[in-house]
Amino acid sequence: MAAYCQVTQTGPQFGHKVSHAQNKTKRRFDPNIQKKTYFVASLGRKVTLNVSARGIKVIDTRGIESVIAELQARGEKI
């Protein structure tokens, strides 16, 4: 599963791991991706989304109907 949130559109970021001796090696920061299933009344079915922890908070705040409408307007497959 790719480290990509469908709601916030965040993916992996890259940076350096820095040791005590200041040696810098490349590393990858992955978002906290969870697979969540929501019931969407307007569609009349369940929808499974790959969302980050922040994306779950966005859905809790704005509501699943609003988020699904935005995803559909963006052209994302649901």
From TrEMBL:
GO terms assigned for molecular function: structural constituent of ribosome
Keyword set includes Transcription regulation: no
Gene Ontology BP terms: translation
GO CC annotation terms, alphabetical: ribonucleoprotein complex; ribosome
Record key words, sorted: Ribonucleoprotein, Ribosomal protein
InterPro entries (alphabetical): Ribosomal_bL28 (IPR026569), Ribosomal_bL28/bL31-like_sf (IPR034704), Ribosomal_bL28_bact-type (IPR001383), Ribosomal_bL28_sf (IPR037147)
PANTHER family for the chain: 39S RIBOSOMAL PROTEIN L28, MITOCHONDRIAL, LARGE RIBOSOMAL SUBUNIT PROTEIN BL28M
Family, per entry: Belongs to the bacterial ribosomal protein bL28 family.
Name recorded for this polypeptide: Large ribosomal subunit protein bL28
Organism: Aquiluna borgnonia
